[in-house]
């Protein structure tokens, strides 16, 4: 009886989906905490230094004037150092700042972006490592085993590779050839049975190879649509609230709303472009595997059918000789 191997990619996909959800929760939580700290710093009371009135007469410098000038110079230097530190922000800090400016649409785009990466990694592992073994190598190994030890040896080697698509196809075809009694059926029926077994296994593995590949493209399209949705909502809020503000606050409100529009659109495009590129790579790999598997499935069916027909003819000749004697 053929051993049905468990699809290991199912466990891998569950693992990556769990990881992406945990990563999304962690990133959003850390960003919210950082945003709260920034708001607390901004709302902290600031002490304004009183400005001295313009002198109308010649002012004599008090004894402590040099000390005050030194303190002012120190404050200017500290402000310069703070400005230099802000300019020296790393790439990650700039991304975090842009993420916070983009407001709530960024959270949904980030979730879809992480899901795109998770599905892409899972499918890459499946297509390059789980199902990625060259079918020609397995096909040659089974044929060499048949030439070395006959049908039983070929069945043993095919069973060892039955976790691979071509191995399962060859094992199913060889098992049909072994279990079929050539004295009871003709050559056309043998060929039909072998081809049916090959087609059954081929159709069983094709969905496993193409599984979840279209989801990458769907999530990429959804990410760019979410970016556009954030842009539209940002523009609606900008034009709806700008009329009730005075001219001094109007410019600040418009700049903030436009920043949300641009950042959410840019992040949505980044996620979509990444998803489309990954989809193209993974889809091409899946299509190549299916085409190669189809080629070697046909070759397997022809080889096993010819072998079974040859064995049936040989058996019929031996039976005819024994009957004539």
Q: How does this model look, in words?
A:
This protein has 325 residues and is mostly helical. The protein has one domain (8-35, 91-324). Helices cover 82% and strands 0% of the residues. The chain contains 9 helices and no strands. It has helices at 8-43, 65-87, 91-101, 105-130, 135-160, 165-179, 187-210, 213-241, 247-324. Helix 4 runs antiparallel to helix 8 (213-241), helix 6 packs antiparallel against helix 7 (187-210) and helix 6 packs parallel to helix 9 (247-324). It is rod-shaped. The two termini are 39 Å apart. The relative contact order is 0.12.
Can you write the helix and strand succession as a string?
HHHHHHHHH
The biggest beta sheet, please?
A: none
Shape: rod-shaped
User: How many distinct helices?
Assistant: 9
Summed up, the domain count is 1
Give the fraction of residues assigned to helices.
over 70%
Quote the beta fraction. under 5%
Overall structural class, as computed from helix and strand content, comes to mainly alpha
Query: How many E-type strands?
Result: 0
The radius of gyration computed from the alpha-carbon positions, rounded to a whole number of angstroms, is 36 Å
Q: List the uncertain runs.
A: 1-6, 41-52, 54-62
**Oligomerization state:** single chain
What is the average of the pLDDT values? 76
Distance between the termini: 39 Å
